[in-house]
């Protein structure tokens, strides 16, 4: 795991200082209160003269000061530690997202959208406890040492016994926590990760699930990981209860040991008794950390595959348009600017070929760009040559203009409107109240399926690449709109000299192609 950034470390140092002050204030508050109450009771039982001689102003002022100091410092420790945790988690998410975004998708780990979401959200959240509780450890140790010092006021033997019990306590509670929580923490992390992944993937198909009445089927499919998660969490809650009971008994043992061996007066014995109880309670932060350590380790284990990814520079926009490269598809050579239609039945591999050209997946067919096989072409080379308008038309949850700006930097509104005109979408966007600033939902609403396809096509046109890859570009369009789109697109291809590799089951878009290549000829080559 990467070290926290400098701002996070500064916040953690302030949080640690606050935690030390809070722990010492709490321990001194409890000890002084015990001494004060016992001393006041003894003075009251000794007569009026003893009561008048007893100075209650200084200890009562000290108690009030310690109470205020403990409250303020504990609030500061909570606020600062959570600020550090949230900042560190945001930094880690950004780093992991950057790692994933910079990977060559042909060789990157095969992580679904749901699984990526589970890791970037759930597994990183499991690290929050690790960071939040980090400042409390020095505070716990400082409070434990102060407790031993206060216990020493009631005799050297109570202090020695308390010190021994405090040394053993962290090891005992850590061993007990690991024994009780390791297996259920692993089961809970796996079940929660699977549940998140399934939920995200199914949420993307929520319209189809509702339309075909599959809600009950989906709920039944989710029932198994939910049951496993509930069972694991019940085991974790039982483990926490067991550790809390052990801590309570251990604190009682420490208090009895100090009280039984105290050789001082009642007031100092009471101070030592409460100091022992407070010292054990101060070390409870270590026990709470140990309880959650198994969850943290499981989250780290699931993140390892992402953290081990090699750092790659994010792709930069080319300073000038790249030169068009010739293609070789199987045994057929095509010059820059050629218009090619890949023909074949559904499932024969046409879409796979387009995605391979776009650098989205490894190629299983003999395809070369500028004489180099696809496997030897860098991702930047393929990105510079090809602009893909995919069959499923993925869109960003943002405005229409945001989606068009993804094509390349520096796109003007005039260029956007020109591209929308070519794709027969200009009038539809103009009728929207916010125009180009209309916000789209995750499913592209308020645009229809055919309109989302055309928006994706407009984005591909704006990319300005030498080759245009179109996968079913007119799917979901009526005949008149399809004919007009094909006419305008054909004129644009001729005027720009852009090459085309087209996949379509509809006959009219095939009129754009100069060459037809059966996909079987490509895959057999």
Automatic annotation (TrEMBL):
GO MF annotation terms: ATP binding
Domain ABC transmembrane type-1 positions: 14-263
Q: Where does the UniProt annotation locate this protein?
A: Cell membrane
What SMART domains does the record point to?
AAA
Q: Which InterPro entries match?
A: AAA+_ATPase, ABC1_TM_dom, ABC1_TM_sf, ABC_transporter-like_ATP-bd, ABC_transporter-like_CS, P-loop_NTPase, Type_1_exporter
List UniProt keywords, sorted A-Z: ATP-binding, Membrane, Nucleotide-binding, Transmembrane, Transmembrane helix
PANTHER family named in the record: ATP-BINDING CASSETTE SUB-FAMILY B, COMPONENT LINKED WITH THE ASSEMBLY OF CYTOCHROME' TRANSPORT TRANSMEMBRANE ATP-BINDING PROTEIN ABC TRANSPORTER CYDD-RELATED
The protein's name in its UniProt record: ATP-binding cassette domain-containing protein
Q: Which organism is it from?
A: Novosphingobium decolorationis
